[in-house]
Design goal:
390 residues; alpha/beta; nicotinate phosphoribosyltransferase; TIM Barrel; 2 domains; 15 helices; binds zinc ion
């Protein structure tokens, strides 16, 4: 084994589970106990008022072939951790003979906790950034085996492009990036800009890195004079030298403007946090390369709990037992969770009739799910970001 990762077969066979599930199965098998168990996934995470539900396609692939029923929110749904009455919102349920799926609790949670965490962080940036460009730059800070996963969920959450070659390839997109400091150091600043322009395919955007040696303002002007098709400059100014980053952006934009140079985007990167964004937008930043903040986003703390056994409501303390119906108000994004079969509620926020929030993806082992296009999931996230509840 050259890399410390589990391969697909090991994940599918349950080897990444926690050992106590294997012990549970061993006991249930020896005692010949077959009970129909309904489990639900909820979060009582108070980190944010809303989260993006993601990771579903991988969960379906994990449970494919098992005689279970899987229901879930549509992938990309923005949901609050608690409904309009303070009840935790189930995002996913699994039902069947407990022996059939007990060992998958660990990988199910692992898949959706991290995917939802990354998609949520990306969506929070997208909401702040709006129509400006949001670029996912963070794969370098996580295990390379996760690059496609990090870029996928960054994209789903709202990033406009991703930097890793494999991440973009899996999304069916072109990877996006500028130039590294290394090229400038190896060739010299002006020479690097020139050769980048001369040697690369015209489809590669001409974005010059302008912070390596000297002042960003003067480097930007030089780059604009040297490269005819310059489409942008990137300011990756280290925070130790940044001073007032917003002011540097203002100065760069001003100097371009007074020279009548148009159409050059200012892309900022380097440890950008959510709280930095409003000021940088106000100063005129046109694009944001966000790395670690998205790729190492905190996971959403989902838990998976038994809520019904053989038709009888049962749950551990702190959890709400019983089969539930989950509704969403399509107008404002509000949620309602009620005992299964009771009357469909109205939205407390806007009085609207609520709609079923969950879909059946696997029914007693039959897979009904066909994966949506990744762009449809991303567009769904972006459409919800404009709702008033968020
Ligand atoms: Zn509503």
């Amino acid at each position: 084994m050259r890399f410390f990762i589990a391969d697909e077969e090991e994940i599918l066979s349950g080897k990444t589970t926690d050992v106590y599930f294997l012990r549970t199965i061993e006991v249930l098998k020896k005692e010949n106990v077959h009970k129909n168990v309904l489990m639900e996934v909820t979060t009582q995470d108070h980190k944010y008022p809303w989260f993006v539900f993601a990771g579903l396609e991988e969960v379906v692939n994990l449970l494919r072939g098992k005689k279970i029923t899987l229901r879930a929110l549509r992938e990309g749904t923005i949901f609050p951790p608690f409904d309009q009455n303070g009840i935790p919102v189930p995002v996913l349920t699994v039902e069947g003979d407990y022996q059939e799926f007990a060992i998958y609790e660990t990988p199910i949670l692992g898949l959706i906790c991290q995917a939802s965490g990354i998609a949520t962080k990306s969506a929070r940036f997208k909401k702040l950034i709006g129509d400006k460009k949001l670029l996912s730059f963070g794969v370098r800070r996580m295990h390379p085996a996760l690059a496609p996963m990090i870029d996928r969920y960054s994209y789903i959450g709202g990033c406009d492009s991703v930097s890793s070659v494999i991440g973009a390839e899996r999304l069916g997109k072109v990877p996006r990036g500028t130039m590294p400091h290394a090229l400038i150091l190896v060739l010299g600043e002006e020479n690097a800009w020139k050769k980048f322009d001369e040697d690369l395919d015209p489809s590669v955007p001409r974005i010059a890195l302008v912070d390596t040696f000297s002042d960003e303002k003067f480097s930007t002007i030089r780059a604009a004079e040297l490269i005819k098709n310059l489409s942008g400059v990137r300011l990756d100014t280290p925070s130790s030298r940044r001073g007032n980053f917003a002011h540097i952006i203002r100065e760069v934009k001003w100097e371009l403007n007074v020279r009548g140079i148009r159409g050059i985007d200012v892309i900022v990167s380097g440890g950008i946090k959510e709280e930095d964004v409003p000021e940088l937008i106000e100063a005129g930043a046109d694009g944001f390369g966000v790395g670690t903040t998205i790729s190492s986003a905190s996971t959403v703390d989902y838990a998976m709990d038994i809520v019904e056994i053989d038709g009888i409501p049962i749950a551990k303390k702190g959890k709400f037992s019983g089969r539930k119906d989950v509704y969403v108000c399509k107008k404002c994004g509000n949620f309602a969770v009620v005992p299964h079969g009771v009357e469909r509620p109205l939205c407390k926020k806007c009085g609207n009739t609520m709609e079923d929030a969950m879909e059946t993806l696997i029914s007693s082992g039959n897979v009904l799910y066909s994966p949506p296009r990744v762009d449809d999931i991303r567009n769904y996230v972006i459409e919800q970001l404009s709702r008033s509840i968020i």
